[in-house]
C-alpha cells in the first residue's frame, strides 16, 4: 500500500520535472510582454525610433540605464537585407543586436568600429550566401552581420556622461538610419 | 477506481511541482554562470548566444534587454557586503576604485526595475560625474536624506536594487578571480 503510494509520488515528481522544464523552455515564445512586444507600439518596422528616457513614472522596459539615450530599429529582414548606420557620439556608443526572443547575438562599440560612423549590413545566412562575389569585395569595408532570426531588434545606445549632455546625445542618435536594401538582382 | 484516483493525484501533484518550480525559478531570477565579486553578481553569458534557458525565460517574462557581451557587463546587488538586504530607509556607503572599464554607471531601481522618484531627479551616477578623493577613490552615499558629496537618493522605498554597468570592459565571461575586477565595497552605515 505504502509502496504503491510512493510509486505515485515518484511518477508525480518525474512528470513535474517534465512540466517544469517544458514551461521554462516555452517561456520565450509564450511571453506576451517581452522587450519586442513592449517596443512594437513605439518602434515601427525597419525604422529608427528614439525611445523616451526612462522616468520613475514610465519606462518602456525595466532596468533601462538612465544615463543612456536609446534608439531602436525593430527589423524584419524576411524580404531583403537591412542597412544600418549610426554616427558615433562623443563619449560612448554601442550597437547591440537581439533576436526576436531578446537573445543578444552581437554587440559592437564605437572603439571596435573604429570610425566616426558605425555602418553595418544585416542579413540572414541565406541572403549572405546568395550575395554575388564582386559585391562582397566592393562592400568589404562594410561589416556584415548574420541574423539568426528574420525579425529582431537593433538597439543603439549612446552615453551622456553628464545629464546636461543628454539633449546633445539624443540629437546625435536622431541621425542614425536603418532601412531595407532593395532586393539584389540575380 | 484506485487507478483513477491515483492518476488524478499524480497529475495534480505533477502540475503543482512543475509550475511551482517554474514560478520560483523565474521570480527568483535563477541563472547559471554567475560571476560574484563581493555583493555584486553578474551573468556575463546572458549577453551572448550562450545564455541559459532560465535566464532566457526570466528576461522574456520581465521584458528587459540584457547588456550585450561586446558592449559591457551588468553587476546586480541586493544586499551589502555583510548580507543585509537593501532597505531604502537605511543609508549605505559604496566606496572603492573604478573598475577596469572605459565608462561605468551606477543606477538604483526598485525590485521590478523601475527608477525611484526623488526630489533631485537623480537615479544614478556615471563614472564621469562622480566626485573623487585626491587618490582617485570615491564614496557614494545611498541614503534617504541628503548627504554631502555623491548622494544617491533611495526615495525611502522598502527594497531597492543597485546595478553597476561596466562599458567597454575586459571583465566578462573569462573573468575568474576577484583580482581582475575589484568591485566597490558596500557597507551599511545607519538604519533609522
* DSSP strand content of chain A: 25-35%
The name of the CATH architecture of the largest domain in chain B is Sandwich
How many separate domains make up the residues of chain A? 2
Helical fraction of chain B? 10-25%
Low-confidence stretches of chain B: none
**Within the largest sheet of chain A, what's the order of strands?**
1-2-8-4-5
SSE pattern of chain B, N- to C-terminal: HEEHEEEEEEEE
What is the tally of beta strands of chain B?
10
- Output the radius of gyration of chain A: 22 Å
What's the overall average pLDDT of chain B, rounded? 87
State the CATH class of the largest domain in chain A: Mainly Beta
Main sheet summary of chain A:
5 strands, antiparallel
Q: List low-confidence stretches of chain A.
A: none
How many structural units, i.e. domains of chain B?
Answer: 2
**Structural class based on helices, strands and sheet pairing of chain B:** alpha+beta
What is the CATH topology descriptor of the largest domain in chain B? Jelly Rolls
The most extensive interface, with participating residues per chain, is: A-B, 64 and 61 residues
Question: What does the model show?
Answer:
- The complex is a heterodimer of chains A (186) and B (192).
- Helix content of chain A is 31%, strand content 30%.
- With 186 residues, chain A is α+β, with helices and mostly antiparallel strands.
- The mean pLDDT of chain A is 87.
- Chain A has six helices and nine strands.
- Chain A has two domains: 1-29; 35-180, Domain of unknown function DUF1254 (Immunoglobulin-like, Sandwich).
- In chain B, the strands form two sheets. In chain B, strands 1-2-3-9-5-6 form a six-stranded antiparallel beta sheet, with no helix packed on it.
- The model of chain B has no long low-confidence stretch (mean pLDDT 87).
- Chain B is globular and about 80 Å long.
- With 192 residues, chain B is of the alpha+beta class.
- The longest helix of chain B has 27 residues, at 2-28.
- Helices cover 19% and strands 28% of the residues of chain B.
- Chain B contains two helices and ten strands, in the order αββαββββββββ.
